[in-house]
Specification:
The chain is of the alpha/beta class and 458 residues long. The protein is built from 15 helices and seven strands. Strands 3-2-1-4-6-5-7 form a seven-stranded mixed β-sheet, sandwiched between helices. Helix 10 crosses helix 15, helix 12 packs across helix 15 and helix 13 crosses helix 14.
Length: 458
């Protein structure tokens, strides 16, 4: 694998050495300390005469940062320059009981418009109890690019463990990771390679699109939420902030993975954890807005609750684990400020709103955090959903009326309000109970009796 025309190694980049095990203990105590300190701080602001001045000053700082984020101009996507020799790419699918959908993805990945001798597909059967192992073995006999790794019940580490195990067997300079329900276009790999022409880029994340978005209110909300997320990610990366991985449709350089010791097997959200590891070791993460990677949205309240609690816990957990290198500014000032801003907006503002509201009712005066909540919790998501949806349709060449965009934006804005419940609950649970969340399989559409209309945006 030494014949490369693209700069897939970064010899002159200084990679800081970090002991990742430091800081991973006492998560429960850290969560309790942060939550208690947050609530006491809000209470103190309510009880002192100049509390409103402090609250409004803090709100002003965050609002100014939000305005700067919105004003950031987006750079055009990189142009793919066909190399003499294409980089070798390894594509991984971590599958556990995915018999309903695994065939479609494997066949799509084995028929890409990319030199067949320059990529491989690895399917990891993580001790499935359905027909997934048999299906994968049959597909491996049909497609020479497909290799299958079967894991037993004794092999631990979850998805991270599975990916670390297969990494040693892969040949690729670039490692792509997909969920079993992913949908891709045949030509997307050329666009992926274009992003890695920049040496400092250690990983990219494909924009995610919901393929069953017309099923019900929940999937329609997730469509807008994914567009909102893609918009914020693009604005953040173009302003020098932190790009984040989202699991399905992520690509990482092998050298970048090596610099941060692979995937963390002590977390429940491998993608969010790897995001911080990559930034802390000097790499950038970019977002590829088109073509997206399709995935199914959850269709029931129970499935949404389980999924979002896992995301909330894993997302907050990484700040507890890596707070020391974060506050020491190892990522640089722009990234550190961006990360702290979104930590405050995503994880701290929702639980802070509880004592703020209760004390406002008790003391009979307006909530102190009302300006911040209105700007960052209402206005910014509305704008991000509107622009994100419009961009996604434009990139797909799909005509959509302003009225349709307005309805979809409104649905998305209502949908994301569930985070106001999920986030405080998840953080409080982390602060009180030592037991971590259990993994719950997400039902695929093929597991259900009904057939739904596909998403036209995809």
């Amino acid at each position: 694998m030494t014949d490369r025309s693209l700069p897939l190694t970064v010899e002159d980049l200084t990679i800081p050495t970090i002991d990742w095990s430091v800081g991973m203990g006492y998560r429960r105590l850290k969560a309790a300390t942060i939550l208690g300190g947050l609530w006491m701080g809000v209470a103190a602001l309510h009880l002192i005469s100049w509390g409103y001045l402090v609250a409004w000053a803090i709100s002003s700082v965050f609002c100014v940062r939000a305005l700067r984020l919105v004003a950031t101009k987006i750079a055009p996507p990189p142009v793919f320059i066909p190399p003499q020799t294409y980089p070798f790419i390894s594509l991984a699918i971590a599958a556990k009981n995915e018999a309903a959908v695994i065939t479609n993805l494997v066949e799509s990945l084995c028929n890409l418009k990319y030199p067949a001798d320059r990529y491989e597909v690895w399917a990891i059967d993580d001790n499935s109890t359905d027909r997934t192992p048999e299906i994968l073995d049959d597909l491996a006999r049909k497609y020479p690019q497909l290799q299958v790794l079967h894991r037993t019940a004794h092999q631990t580490g979850g998805k991270s463990g599975a990916l670390n195990q297969v990494l040693a067997l892969m040949q690729g300079d670039l490692i792509g990771v997909f969920d079993a329900d992913a949908q891709v276009t045949p030509d997307f790999l050329d666009r992926v390679v274009a992003h890695f022409q920049t040496e400092s880029v250690g990983a990219i994340q494909l924009r995610k699109a919901i393929t069953n978005s017309e099923t019900n209110f929940l999937t329609r909300g997730q469509r807008a939420e994914m567009a909102l997320d893609a918009y914020l990610q693009q604005q953040r990366t173009n302003s020098g902030g932190v790009g984040e991985l989202r699991g399905n449709g992520q690509f990482v350089r092998r050298t970048a993975l090596a610099s941060c010791d692979g995937w963390n097997e002590q977390t429940i959200t491998d993608d969010l954890d790897l995001t911080l590891r990559l930034h802390l070791t000097g790499w950038d993460i970019e977002v590829m807005s088109y073509p997206p990677v399709g995935e199914e949205g959850v269709t029931t309240v129970t499935a949404l609750w389980n999924q979002r609690n896992r995301w909330a816990e894993g997302g907050f957990q990484r700040y507890l684990d890596y707070w020391e290198p974060i506050v020491s500014n190892r990522m640089g000032t722009k990234k550190t400020l961006d990360l702290i801003s979104f930590l405050s907006i995503q994880y701290l503002l929702p639980p802070a709103g509880i004592p703020d509201f209760l004390l406002a009712v008790w003391l009979k005066h307006p909530p102190l955090l009302l300006p911040m909540t209105a700007t960052l919790g209402v206005a910014l998501p509305l704008w991000a959903a509107w622009v994100g949806l419009r961009r996604s349709y434009q990139q797909a060449g799909t005509m959509v009326t302003p009225a349709t965009l307005l309805v979809q934006t409104a649905i998305g804005s209502l949908f994301i309000l569930h985070w106001l419940v999920v986030m405080p609950f998840a953080i409080a649970r982390m602060a009180i109970f030592p037991k971590r969340l259990k993994w719950v399989k997400t039902l695929r559409q093929a597991d259900l009796p009904t057939i739904v209309k596909k998403n036209t945006e995809y």
